[in-house]
Specification:
The complex is a heterotrimer. Chain A has helices at 30-50, 53-57, 68-78, 122-143, 159-171; strands at residues 3-9, 15-20, 93-95, 100-105, 111-116. In chain A, 42% of the residues lie in helices and 16% in strands. Chain A is of the alpha+beta class. In chain A, 40% of the residues are buried. Chain A has a 5-stranded antiparallel β-sheet. In chain C, 42% of the residues lie in helices and 11% in strands. The chains are: A alpha+beta, B alpha+beta, C alpha+beta. The A-B interface holds A 11, 44-45, 47-49, 56, 68-69, 71-72, 75-76, 79-84, 86-91, 105-110, 130-131, 134-135, 137-138, 140-142, 145-146, 152 and B 1-9, 11, 55-60, 62-71, 75, 78-79, 82-83, 143-144, 176, 178-182.
Chain lengths: 172, 182, 248
């Protein structure tokens, strides 16, 4: 899996970070990125409405892990890190011949979106995306949340965050 | 970097807690001077600063633990005390005094804790030295759509038998729960 | 303030005292009277016995003064807790400051109080047997750069250097200052370095050891080490003179 691009959306669907990790990608205009982010935010919410409730109750969806109660019980009893993705019924992934797209959502409503190269072995791809999201969320809480010069819900301009995202992309 | 299933506390970058204690003390002392020892205003300011921390700190908590939405306020308080206080302050407070409707309870901090160690305050009725904790809890819970009142009712620094924070759940902000959760 | 609060006559009033002057309260040394002025009379003993007092006897063996700081196990805490606290401290200081310079001065002030206290703790713990008092500039610098840094920031600092231009200037270099680890300074903030807080800690510790100095933090990034910070220590000129008198 190769990372093409990373998007971060605030809980209102506003684009607060976008990074093309593959330099060969064509750049869109700033406005197009905003529109793209808003569209994904909307499609994600619509998908949640479309999901039959039975699927929601059933924990078969690939992006969700276990159900929240079991997740927290395991967390408390073992003290071991669990999956923080709360995107259960919204748009989870788009898989095409040209690219794959994955959506992660935190309990606070922040969305991380990865655009990657396609990979024929989907199962492995999902695991990798899940690992990348975990690292990305940790980087966000370190280099964005602990920066006094960052205002919540505003575009992220931290050089350190850029640097660390770059390092993460090189590792994937 | 941590992987799923790794021990949370083991992966935490740790520092000498005394640096934290003295830094917090220095901030409170500075606030007391800035507000001319008007402790009512100092409390408000500490609470506000705590709130600003809480709304950011919640992301760290979620990203490092992978906690998911709790199904009851009891579960929330359990996660806060057993995991939240443990991860951030390396202490484990007790939970007492649940109201019959399950919407309010007390968190009792162990003594000394990393905020009040080495601390003695002049005999005054007004300063809640650890008020910042209330703001942090309020801010963090608000970000996960819980409207909760948090305040101190007892403080050993004031000669009470324990340091006790009271939590009261006002309401769950259902409209603000992000789409796609369930 | 009532009369009986005044226990000793001030220096100015001493010269005007005569043998006839007996303080109303019956207290206070009258040099004209000599030891006689301290004789307890029924009047003064009455005052003594009826005086309002504030109890200083510890009511429990649990006060902070009863605890031993020497053999206490030093707890560990999450770095993030300090980072979030510091982030908010910078945010609040920033709102109250008049500019970048002022912001750094205030952060330095916050650290100063930490440095004074931490020095006391660390010296107390070194104990009488193993500790020695640093009396040379180079010794106190080695102590700050090594033992002190390791104890408070968890690792020793990177380099310790002496300025070739000024005899009273030294530099301690830290590649990743603990408190600035997660902070990116926006471009329009110029030379701001939030490690001014750490500079304050060092300054507080140095001043308390009677090595009066000004300490400032300056960003000096090199390739691959974006947060590298130079702590410039400028000792008081008097210190250099003191040192040459003592050791030459």
């Amino acid at each position: 899996m190769k990372l093409y691009s990373i998007y971060i959306l605030n809980k209102a669907g506003g684009l607060i970070y976008q990074n093309n990790l593959d330099p060969s990608l064509n750049r869109l205009t700033a406005n197009d990125y905003l529109v793209l982010a808003g569209t994904l935010h909307g499609v994600h919410a619509i998908a949640a409405k479309l999901t039959p409730t039975i699927v929601g109750k059933d924990s078969t969806s690939t992006t969700s892990g276990t159900d929240p109660t079991a997740n927290n019980a395991l967390l408390l009893s073992t003290g071991k890190v669990q999956n923080s993705n709360t995107n259960k019924t919204g748009l989870g992934s788009i898989e095409t011949d040209l690219f794959n797209l994955y959506v992660f959502q935190s309990l606070t409503g922040i969305k991380f979106i990865l655009i990657t190269s396609p990979n024929p072995i989907l199962q492995k791809q999902h695991e990798q995306a899940s690992e990348t999201f975990r690292h990305l969320y940790v980087l966000y809480s370190d280099y964005v949340m602990k920066d006094p010069f960052y205002s919540l819900d505003m575009p992220i301009k931290s050089q350190l965050f850029d640097l660390k995202v770059g390092e993460l992309a090189a590792l994937v | 970097m941590s992987k799923k299933g790794d021990d949370i506390w083991k992966n935490v970058d740790k520092i000498n807690s005394e640096l934290f204690t003295l830094t917090y003390g220095s901030i409170v002392a500075q606030l007391c001077r800035d507000f001319n020892h008007n402790y009512h205003e100092v409390n408000n300011q500490l609470d506000q600063m705590g709130y600003n921390i809480g709304i950011r700190l919640i992301e760290e908590f979620l990203s490092r633990t992978g906690a998911q939405r709790c199904q009851s306020f009891k579960e929330t308080v359990e996660v806060i005390t057993k995991l939240g206080f443990r991860v951030f302050l390396n202490i484990q407070p007790a939970v007492e005094n649940w109201s019959s409707d399950g919407r309010s309870c007390s968190i009792v901090l162990p003594e000394p804790n990393p905020l009040n160690e080495f601390v003695e305050i002049p005999p005054t009725k007004d300063l809640w030295y650890c008020q910042i904790l209330c703001g942090i809890l309020r801010g963090a819970l608000q970000m996960i759509q819980l409207d909760v009142d948090v305040n101190f009712v007892k403080d050993t620094l004031k000669g009470d038998d324990k340091t006790e924070i009271r939590l009261k759940l006002n309401k769950i902000l259902k409209d603000e729960v992000p789409a796609g959760e369930d | 303030m009532s009369n009986d609060n005044i226990i000793l006559p001030s220096a100015a009033s001493l010269s005007t005292l005569s043998i006839a002057d007996n303080p109303k309260s019956g207290f206070g040394y009258n040099p004209s009277l000599g030891p006689l002025s301290n004789t307890i009379t029924p009047e003064s003993s009455n005052i003594l016995l009826n005086r309002k007092t504030l109890s200083l006897t510890p009511t429990s063996g649990n006060s902070i003064y009863d605890k031993n700081v020497n053999n206490k196990k030093i707890n560990e805490i999450n770095l993030s807790s300090l980072s979030f606290l510091f982030c908010e401290a910078v945010n609040w200081t920033h709102r109250n400051s008049k500019g970048i310079q002022d912001l750094e001065t205030r952060l330095n002030g916050l650290g100063y109080q930490v440095g004074q206290r931490f020095l006391e703790l660390i010296k107390l713990r070194e104990g009488v047997k193993s500790s020695k008092r640093e009396i040379k500039i180079i010794d106190i610098l080695r102590f700050i750069h090594g033992t002190f840094w390791k104890s408070i920031f968890g690792k020793t600092a990177n380099e310790l250097e002496k300025s070739q231009d000024a005899s009273n200037e030294y530099m301690i270099i830290d590649n990743v200052p603990l408190v600035s680890k997660f902070i990116s300074i926006p471009k329009d903030y110029g030379n701001l370095n939030c490690s001014a807080f750490m500079a304050g800690i060092i300054e507080g510790a140095l001043d308390s050891s009677s090595f009066h100095a000004n300490v400032t933090a300056h960003s000096a990034p090199i390739d691959g080490v974006p947060l590298r910070t130079v702590f410039l220590i400028k000792f008081d000129e008097q210190l250099v003179i003191r040192e040459s008198l003592r050791f030459n």
